[in-house]
Amino acid sequence: MSAIALLCEIIAQGGKVSTATYGQHPEFKTLLRGGYVRESGVVRAVECLECDETHDAEIIFDAGRYGYACPEIGFVPVDRAEITAWQSDLSAIVTGIADAFACKRRRSAPVQGETWRIGKVASHGGDVSIYLHPALNGEREALDLMAALSREVRTPFRLILTSSGRLPIPDTKVVPLVDVVKLNLDLVGFAVLADPCDVVGAPRDRTGGAPNRYRDIVTPLIQSRTEEGTALEGRNEEAKAIQAILKARDSGANLPSLSSIKVYVTKSRAGQ
Length: 272
Prior knowledge:
Distance between the termini: 23 Å
Helix content: 25-40%
Radius of gyration: 22 Å
Structural class: alpha+beta
Number of helices: 10
Shape: globular
Number of domains: 3
Largest sheet: 4 strands, antiparallel
Order of helices and strands: HEHHEEEEEHEHEEHEEEEHHHH
């Protein structure tokens, strides 16, 4: 399972997941490094394997120890590391996707309920509004999404990304998240697989976006730091370091934003 597929599976759970289920997966470290999952206490219950009859047991904290009560054995202590719970950080995920697409008009909080506006990208046919809705498997989820969209200013094109399910929404393109972005073990940040304009069938904006104006300035710096071995492992940290270098060179110049630099770092590490 790829890192992005693992992330989608965790998002689709809609709540806490356990270390026992996901923590040992090789790509789980990628999600942690990017900040796309966060610790969320401990799980509510575990499966008791200590007695003859397997059963679910609620986790309790007693006398400074975590554990559960087994009818046959009594209190069974459990190492906290084994019952740590994790949850997807949708705010970080939305920000990461917005960085990858170099979106404008972003929103750092849900539009309504579980619907997030990632941002907008331009095309000759008008803006493409991009949203994230965790799952679209049933009618209730579809109705919740449409209620949230009714609060938004309508643009010529709308794209909904989801981790699970793809119920049709009127005048809207619904696409699985795994079809448009990816995550790599050696890459902190999302890499683009499909251009949103292509996905919704919108004509591309041939004038180019803000990040392209700085390609000749930023890309050589990224490459030289990579070749010299001075590049930082984290994408966010590397982007901040590059921004500091550019400001030191010419503090009065019209420099790229941090989000634009992150896009260049992401593309460079993806070999684009």
